[in-house]
Amino acid sequence: SSRPQEATDILARIARLYHEVETPCANMKPEERQRRRQEHAAPILAGIFAKLEELKQQTIPSEPLRKAVDYALNQRQALCRYLEDGRLRPDNNLAENAMRPVALGRKNWLFVGSERGGRAAALFMSLIQSCKTCDVNPWEYFGDILRRIMSHPVSRLRELLPDQWKPLPKEEQGLLLPARG
Predict the structure, then answer these.
(1) For the chain, which ranges sit under pLDDT 70?
(2) If you count Cβ atoms within 10 Å of the first and of the last residue's Cβ in the chain, which end, N or C, has fewer?
(3) Residues with Cβ < 8 Å from 68, sequence gap 6 or more?
């Protein structure tokens, strides 16, 4: 049987977490965010899990709602983990959004040519997503590191990853291989 009202109630409670807790604390320091979550989000989550326990008793195992309830209850510890660390997000939206281009391109990548080509494509997609996550322009990033990488010390390659990268100053760019184009 379908139970849209029960599902709607749970979704409304989840929405409260975002509207009443996450939105107001978006610009807070992690320690402040953790305190606010403990004070405001923890009781909302407790209510959600109490309702889920109640729904578990009212549904049969084959119902889609029951399957969703069981899944949520089995993930309780992981779902509550963000309450303990103000640096964490309450969802995995960043990871989901980062994976969207991979999912959209999956059929195209059947034709990368070889396993080695697939690895290279995956490496570049990973670097491009890292650039986007770090607010780095991928075009500028690749243009810079491809000119620098041959003369950059191997022991300092970490500096060329998107989260650490800093463009080479203009006065030093002439010392590298010229950009082709």
Answers:
(1) 1-2, 109, 173-181
(2) C
(3) 7
Contacts of 71 (CB under 8 A, 6+ apart): none
Alpha-carbon distance values, 54 to 43, 46, 47, 60, 68 (Å): 16, 12, 11, 12, 13
Q: 158 exposed, middle or buried (CB, 10 Å; 0-12, 13-18, 19+)?
A: exposed
Q: Are residues 28 and 98 in the same domain?
A: no
Does one domain contain both 154 and 105? yes
Mark whether 97 and 118 lie in a shared domain.
yes
Domain span at residue 107?
Answer: 93-173
Q: Are residues 120 and 60 in the same domain?
A: no
Q: How far apart are CA 173 and CA 12, in angstroms?
A: 55
With contact defined as beta carbons under 8 Å apart, do 86 and 32 qualify?
Answer: yes
Is 56 domain-assigned?
A: yes
d(CA 122, CA 163): 18
Report if residue 160 sits inside a domain.
yes
How many folded domains does the chain comprise?
2
What is the residue whose two structure tokens read 């690749």?
A: 142
Q: Are both 67 and 109 inside the same structural domain?
A: no
Task: Give the three-state DSSP class for 12.
Answer: helix
pTM of the model: 0.60
